[in-house]
Each structure stands twice: as structure tokens, then as C-alpha cells.
Amino acid sequence: MSKILSLKEINNDVTIEKMELIINLYEQGTLTKKEASKLAEHLLKKFKAFKPQKEKKEQYEFILDLCISLTTIKRAEERFEQHYLKSLKEELVKAKKM
Predict the structure, then answer these.
(1) What's the rounded Cα separation, in Å, for the pair 87 and 71?
(2) Is residue 2 part of a domain?
(3) What is the CB neighbour count within 10 angstroms for residue 60?
(4) Assigned domain for 6 exists
(5) Into how many domains does the chain fold?
(6) Domain of life here (predicted)?
């Protein structure tokens, strides 16, 4: 699991990629809800320490909110889970375009 988030460099784009990776691995069954949440929490901690350039601040705030959301996957109910993941992936696409 530690190789998934080997973070030598952190920025907005890397964080989006890592979040997408966590979601994909969870959907494939490679990660449990608890593992996905734990990885997202680790990513969030690293990302909070990152200071973006002024022109990337809005995107940073948006991604930060999405990362916080991903940390809560361990609490997602089964019937809501697919909608939650689909919505999160759509928001990550928006974040890339910012």
C-alpha cells in the first residue's frame, strides 16, 4: 500500500492522480473501504502541507474538499456508495480542467 502513495513531489495534479488511483483500486476490490480511507487521509495530510501558487489556489481548495470527501468513504452506505464514487470522479474531472 505504501507504494501507491509514494509522494516525492506533491501538487494539484499529482493529488488528483493519486485520488483517482485510490478510487480505481477500491472499485476493483484491491483496497477495502478502510484502506482507501486511510490512504486518502495520508494523501490529505501531505496535500495540506503543500502551498500552491496564487493562480492555482482555487483549484487547490477544490481538490482539498474532494480529498476530505474521499477520506469518508469508510462511512459510505452500500446503497449510496456507487453514487458517491461516481460523483467524486466527476468532480475530479472538473478539478483537472480548472
Answers:
(1) 15
(2) no
(3) 20
(4) no
(5) 1
(6) Archaea
